[in-house]
């Protein structure tokens, strides 16, 4: 798919299904990720792939995290949280290994990883796959970071759910005019 078409037509699907990206497609998606602009070439991004039965373990983490935050959560809510892990055949945890003492400000390291995540969504779309970006409280849960093998100082930028679009998301009206102005001094 043409790059501009991919950039302007990407929308988050409402529902995903199998199959996920093939090994080749995933490689391309990851190459697109690490092609993101990155001040100082610090390569702050880390990617953790969760597929197959590992999604069930991830689902258990989601439910445990919710229970810690809301000990009174009913069983149905915990089950719904657990099932979120099965919304896609592949989940990519996009994390930033931020270096606090570096010359490049932390926010710029985080933004680079955000750009990598966006590159992945657009690359997946260009290859015919759907993807959506999620965070929520679990992205900031130290226990979740530990379980994923991340340090507490790492930031989870997002969980990218990737697969085949089952239900398309609502189309978006891409109008930049209301948020753009020309500065004339
Ligand atoms: C950093 C980040 C975190 C997000 N986290 C969530 C989330 O937890 N839940 C959610 O419904 N949407 C979340 N979104 C927004 C969706 O991924 C999506 O972009 C939004 O629903 C707009 O749909 P579109 O991508 O089709 O324009 C997040 C977006 C970003 C950039």
State the gist of this model:
The protein has 185 residues and is α+β, with helices and mostly antiparallel strands. It has 6 helices and 5 strands. Strands 1, 2, 3, 4 and 5 form a 5-stranded antiparallel sheet that branches.
Notes on the structure:
- It is a single chain.
- This protein is α+β, with helices and mostly antiparallel strands.
- It is 38% helix and 19% strand.
- It is built from six helices and five strands; from the N terminus they run H-E-H-E-H-H-E-H-E-H-E.
- Strands 1, 2, 3, 4 and 5 form a five-stranded antiparallel beta sheet that branches.
- Helix 1 (3-9) crosses helix 5 (106-126), helix 2 packs antiparallel against helix 5 (106-126) and helix 3 (54-69) packs antiparallel against helix 4 (75-83).
- The chain is globular and about 55 Å long.
- The structure holds flavin mononucleotide.
- Residues 11-12, 132-136, 158, 169, 172 line the site of flavin mononucleotide.
N-to-C CA distance: 40 Å
CA gyration radius, whole angstroms: 18 Å
Mean pLDDT: 97
Strand residues, percent: 15-25%
Listing every helix as H and every strand as E from the N terminus to the C terminus, the arrangement reads: HEHEHHEHEHE
Percent of residues in helical segments?
A: 25-40%
Give the biggest beta sheet.
5 strands, antiparallel
Shape, principal axes of CA atoms: globular
Q: Report the strand count.
A: 5
- Report the structural category: alpha+beta
Bound molecules: flavin mononucleotide
Give unreliable regions as ranges: none
Q: Count of DSSP helices?
A: 6
Oligomer designation: single chain
